[in-house]
Write a structure and sequence with these properties.
Number of domains: 1
Protein name: DUF8139 domain-containing protein
Largest sheet: 5 strands, antiparallel
Organism: Natrinema hispanicum
InterPro entries: DUF8139 (IPR058452)
Radius of gyration: 13 Å
Mean pLDDT: 91
Domain DUF8139: 12-84
Distance between the termini: 8 Å
Number of strands: 5
Number of helices: 1
Low-confidence stretches: none
Oligomer: single chain
Length: 88
Amino acid sequence: MVEDEIPQPAADPYSPGDRVRVYVGHGDPDTQYYGLVCEVLEVLSDDLHAETGRQLGAYSYRLQSTEQGKELQLTFRHWDLIPEEVEL
């Protein structure tokens, strides 16, 4: 990856079983999860996309850490996740 290139989320919603990497900004309260590789357990949807105008904004995900095997206690929005194979 080029140094000043910003990793992008997948163009389509993730599915259960997909492996993703948490990519949140340094000012985000959940930065402790930055770079963590997880498996998608469940796909949730709501109507946030109606407010944001971003279709993928409707999706959030319940995740399990692949390293610890534990479910995370919070959900992440689509734009906070990138495919696992994208290097940081």
